[in-house]
Amino acid sequence: MAGTLPAAGPAAAAADPQRLTVDLGASEGPVMLGANGALYGLSDDGVPSDAALEPLKITSISQKPEGGAQHPNGDALTVSKSFFRNGGGEINVMMQDIYAKWPYEDLGIDDYLPKVDKIVKEVSADPNSERFVYIPFNEPDQIWYNLGTSDQAQYEANRDRFFKDWKTVYQRIRAIDPDARIAGPNEAGYHTRLLTDFLTFAKRENVLPQVMTWHELSSGSLRDFQGNYDNYRSIERRLGIAPLKINIDEYANRRDLSVPGQLVQWVSMFERNKVYANQAYWDAAGNMDGNVVRSNIPNGGWWLFRWYAGMTGDTVKVTPPQANTIDTLQGLASLDPSRRQAQVLLGGSAGDSDVVVQNVPRSVFGRTVTATVAEAAWSGYEGQHATPRVLARTKVKVAADGTVTVPLRGLHKMSAYRIVLTPGGTGTPTAASVPWSASYEAENAAITGGQVYTQGTVSNANGYAASGTKDVGSLNQASSKVDFTVTVPEDGTYDLAILYGNQSGAPSTQKLSVDGGDPVTVTYPSTENWTYRAKKDVTLDLPAGTHTLTLAKGDAEVTLDRVDLTTRTAKPSASYEATLADISGRPSYDYSSSAGVGTGALVLRKGDKAVFDVYAPRDGYFTVLPRASAPVRLTLHGETVSAAPDRPLRLYLVAGNNRVAMTAQNAAVRSLDVSGDGSTSGTLSYEGASATLAGGAKLVDSAHASAGSFIGMLGNSAASTAEFTVDAPRSGRYLLVVHYAHNDRRDNGHAYNTDIMSRTADITVGSAAPRKVTFKNTWSVDDYWTLGVPVDLKKGSNSVTFGNASAWAPNIDRIELGRIIG
Known about the structure:
8-stranded parallel barrel, about 15% helix
């Protein structure tokens, strides 16, 4: 009989659990992390932020050529700076995105060739030219060549024209860049007929691509990809072509992006087959295709890819309940004997599941294991997601047949789950604290003056994701409201999370009341559109029992998807396991004790480093405490501080992800514990009205700015500046938090891309050199976001000056400064 853990999550349902089997004895080869890429995942240097990008260990992205007219940003050479700086692998250059129209204007090969020359000359001159891949044609089965036609004679004529052009462009690229890697044919879908003909031609004419690319862009891909892959490899074998690297350089639909339970299905099939894959670009550039909120804030999708990036060793065979099926429980798993860890990522199905881990090697794990289960939930495309909650930490004996069964109960279809197995040492892991929580769908509530809409489904895969595939919109009447009937178990404080959309063009409001009592105003920041879901967090005090929560129309329209109620037990806190941190050097792993977080300790010595990804719900001070056997040193935002074991530090974190590096002379570290809700006590704050303005910059009245005005008309001239004088209580490194807004766009006429643009500002502190900082579009000029910039201040008076000699800087509401070590 298998060693079995207590169920994680709510009580078991009546139906028999699904069974997902992991065989640690069946290696599939080294973890490749190929499926974490994105098309137009980056828009500018700094969007997304370094702290959001680096932890994902991106292996490939696809971007347009420098100066390409297809979109206003996302130029390959421009974004390569931040991509390579943060450990990125390679960049696919979508060469036809030099054109403005979609589909691309067909002006003939003679028009295209000079553009090819320009692109290749620029890329080949880059110091990192060997890390770029040229994609000469995009979706030629549909665009320019119509290779998908069912008329065989027409197909052959179109095919021959395409092959001629392929050879011409291929040779043109190689004439300029002899070492160029070229990818193709890059069909919109998989076509056996075309690929057989293409490979035959390309081999004969010595113009084989170095990377094989095609797109998987339908719900059916979850069913069909394995057959497509197997068929493709069989064509290679039949033609005597050595296996080519494969990049599925566009995958997934809107309903999949940002949704951990959907994405894990795609990632598992690509990683299993060791192919690279980039998520498709359906909306806005610069957010890793729906996985980064604003510039630096994780959502549920980000955490799934962060987990994926943390897998090491080899992947191993996973047998799902149903293979090659749309919207089912799927997973991937890894085993790293050197770290003595096994990890399983799974999701895609509601209900109950038993994860049966077979062939647990005694030489690696011993006779007992600790299993840690965590959940990454769907929080919307633009909804913040705190550090994934640990649902269970349990130590269990490995059965005589070498198996361990992890029961998962009450799974959520849109969530992904991670199971980590580590050797079970002495002691008992701290039990997971899972607060009471309940979810309520808006479409099931009492609706007045609104309408239920169906969103992303299998048959409408490019509809936006919605909880339960439905939301409530058209709440635009004076009487519009949604009444949720909720029941809470005890008197107390509850966190209310509202999944919403706001395309009104400015912050919008609703009136929240409990049981018909006095309403409070809930303000919703703008979103890309009505269905590009974000999350608003509100706190409520409720007595035990059943209540009616009413969200009624305020000053503009809001769409509602779902509300979640969760017991608030204390200040938010999270423990980040040291043995799951990113490492450099050669630290060792000590599993002699399962106390605390249950995953043992990471032993750091001179030359070793561990990096933790620490979430903060807002900019401010948090309590950071290392659980270590000896002193350690922490580095955050370029500042290093010594930390005694179990001695709390007060550190300034920015909203979203913070990379905290830890070093030590010799310390066994269990975790880095972080708590608090972002205190601003001790910070410096300066409204826009306190700045000295020059060169046309001026104060503009605004009801949405914190003090009723913001600094506008800033930049576009060397003379146009805003200078703040800040008084630092002592010298040191501070976080400068800029509250800003702008809504620059360029409509390229694409029905499904929102071509938002970023602005930059040069920030000068005292006599230091100016630093160029990128500010992402905030969806409306009345929505203020924050961006944190580390700066060094001297004690006393310091000037902090904003400007931009060549373009407009963002509007600035106010600035805050917090010393990193509080």
